[in-house]
Amino acid sequence: MEDLESAGAAPPPGLSSLLPPREFLRSRKGQLLLAESVLSFIIFICYIASLAASFMMAPLLEFLLALFLFFAYASKLNEKFKGVHWPLADFLRCVTAAIIYFAISIAAVSKYSDGASKAAGVFGFAATIVFAIDFYITFNDLVTFLKQGSSDSPEGHKTEDEDSDSDSD
């Protein structure tokens, strides 16, 4: 068995095949998605145990979305399915999650007096910060992508316009 691994052969399939690659876990996006998933799950558990159980749906949905994107990026589904604009979908998910977590955290801390609601509110504020960092980074990536796309197109149109002007002379 050790000879196969040292020879560079793929390890046998098993539970390790379900785990994301180490390079993705060490990347900034992987760590942010992992933090979002963990925080959303903790907040979900806190809301279940609290008097503010009506807020539990938002962390559950955010947990599932963050987990889906974590495994989608880890298994490189974003490269396989080109029809979805992944950075834009991720940006919208992060913006809405930050706003929702901020709103329900304020409500949980101010309206409810039990410890689980207070803990969910505090973790919610932490999640707001993590989602805000993620949407800031994703926004910068989107702006860079759009600047590259917009700088290419006008130049292409200018050369076509110049060519047509020279043809008409």
TrEMBL record:
<feature type="transmembrane region" description="Helical">
    <location>
        <begin position="86"/>
        <end position="108"/>
    </location>
</feature>
<dbReference type="InterPro" id="IPR008253">
    <property type="entry name" value="Marvel"/>
</dbReference>
<feature type="domain" description="MARVEL">
    <location>
        <begin position="24"/>
        <end position="143"/>
    </location>
</feature>
<feature type="transmembrane region" description="Helical">
    <location>
        <begin position="32"/>
        <end position="50"/>
    </location>
</feature>
<feature type="transmembrane region" description="Helical">
    <location>
        <begin position="56"/>
        <end position="74"/>
    </location>
</feature>
<keyword id="KW-0472">Membrane</keyword>
<dbReference type="Pfam" id="PF01284">
    <property type="entry name" value="MARVEL"/>
</dbReference>
<keyword id="KW-1133">Transmembrane helix</keyword>
<protein>
    <submittedName>
        <fullName>CKLF3 protein</fullName>
    </submittedName>
</protein>
<dbReference type="InterPro" id="IPR050578">
    <property type="entry name" value="MARVEL-CKLF_proteins"/>
</dbReference>
<keyword id="KW-0812">Transmembrane</keyword>
<feature type="region of interest" description="Disordered">
    <location>
        <begin position="149"/>
        <end position="169"/>
    </location>
</feature>
<feature type="transmembrane region" description="Helical">
    <location>
        <begin position="120"/>
        <end position="139"/>
    </location>
</feature>
<dbReference type="GO" id="GO:0016020">
    <property type="term" value="C:membrane"/>
</dbReference>
